Amino acid sequence: MKTVIFWICVVSSCPGLARVGPAGRQFPPDFLFGTSSASYQVEGAWNEDGKGESIWDRFVHRDPPPAKDGSTGDVANDSYHKYKRDIQMLRELGVNTYRFSISWTRILPTGFSNYINPLGVQYYNNVIDELLKYNIEPIVTIFHFDLPQSLQDLGGFANPLIEGWFEDYARVVFGLYGDRVKKWITINEPRETCSEAYGTVTSAPGLNFSGFADYLCAKYVLICHASAYRLYDREFRASQGGEVGIAYSASWYAPATDSVEDELATELKRQSELTIYVDPVFSEEGGFPAELSTRIAQKSAEQGYPFSRLPAFTEEEKEFVRGTADFLGVNHYCSFLISATKNLQENPRVPSLADDVNVGLVIPDEWPHSALSFMARSPNSLFNVLSYFNARYNKNITYYITENGWAVDEGLEGDRIANYRDNLEGVLDSLDAGIRVKGFMAWTLMDNYEWISGFSVKFGLYRVDRSDSELRRIPRETAFVYKEIIKTRQIDHNYYPTTKEMTIDDGL
Ligand SMILES: *[C@@H]1O[C@H](CO)[C@@H](O)[C@H](O)[C@H]1NC(C)=O
Ligand SMILES: *[C@@H]1O[C@H](CO)[C@@H](O)[C@H](O)[C@H]1NC(C)=O
Ligand SMILES: *[C@@H]1O[C@H](CO)[C@@H](O)[C@H](O)[C@H]1NC(C)=O
Description:
Keywords: Glycosidase, Hydrolase, Signal
Family: Belongs to the glycosyl hydrolase 1 family.
Number of strands: 15
CATH class: Alpha Beta
CATH topology: TIM Barrel
Bound molecules: 2-acetamido-2-deoxy-beta-D-glucopyranose
CATH superfamily: Glycosidases
InterPro entries: GH (IPR017853), GH_1_N_CS (IPR033132), Glyco_hydro_1 (IPR001360)
Signal peptide: 1-18
Strand content: 5-15%
Distance between the termini: 34 Å
Number of domains: 1
Protein name: Myrosinase 1-like
Number of helices: 16
Structural class: alpha/beta
Radius of gyration: 22 Å
């Protein structure tokens, strides 16, 4: 059933290898197709109209600047001023949904709800109303990495009081926008919010407090999520009738060999990167995964700590967090093989996640590789992730693919196209298997500020003509392919935009 086809390329870039599924399969009529973005990566206007400072504003203004190319998101895509242009691109693509995030400090410049910034409020009203004018459903992420610096100064997600601050913020945004927004994502990527940001220096706030602050964050970020979900239940669900979920970065981890050691290593890796954040919300028992908890408690004891560095949930907290999601958002990019013996990190920092769970990553050469060294993918990885969740939680979970995309250098557009086709075939495979996937959001609309990679990494369906004084946006081939899939609701592996279609003046 799974055949691999080769292309005869007539255009600059070759679609490369793409897996072709059974013919004639269609996405259901109510399936949502969209693109995803994050406030800090596109808005710019970092200190305009009363916006407060976020941890990303503080981080990128460090000396020396942390981004590889020294860039910042001060201007980014200027979406704060050019949202109508963004929505014009969404209309060209024919999507019926757009996922974006709210910048906490644009709404609450102090981080607290003592003062609500009217110009910040107006901006998101404008975006939402413009989307709805064109029947594009807003899916709103309440938090996507840009925590108020004021709250970080008080410990951020390592301080249990964040629960109340987050709930206050969520109450403000549900109240302001919930009449029109019916799908909410509380937290984007708990793993990335905590692991690198609190454990290393590669993501704001760059706390570099590994094996400790990252674990505190893991607990309190999930309590924040649950708090917002329960708030919605108490005060908004009856009148607004929306759904509230959470979005996880979900890579696929599989054992490098069928040895018992590699199987165990894989389970521990999944627990430490993935289910540590998913189990507390979706498992029956609640709380952090068992083997990981035991491992970190043992390590902590050996290191002389009188407590586990991974703070367990109390029974009451388990109950509070358990079952608090109407859907599971999946941000899927990468796959890894896990080995108990190969490629182990030598002398990992102590304490750290890498020391607590030291397993090796193997990325086979034959997998498709993106422009980011860690980003490669195995066949069927998205289907595998969704099947894994359904099996682990033994539940009929509703999924949205809240992010999927591929970073490539100019000239390798065929690789990006193959990524989208493969993953969308994975969505169809999942639907065939009875897995409830309700939408797919491409990462991302246009090249944007890619965190510590700055502008060097390009995920956009659109690129920008830097030689044009208006910085004209130009759809890449992938944009045409995505548009065709959305229009026909099926994946035609033979479709490729003609040179005429791709002339700039015709647009999309
Ligand atoms: C988006 O922002 C990045 C950073 O400023 C820039 O490199 C890119 O060209 C912008 N793209 C568009 C479409 O404006
Ligand atoms: C991060 O912490 C490690 C271990 O303490 C240290 O070696 C390293 O220099 C720190 N990095 C920065 C940028 O402070
Ligand atoms: C899952 O839930 C949906 C909606 O409630 C329902 O239509 C479907 O039959 C369920 N599937 C299974 C396998 O229970």
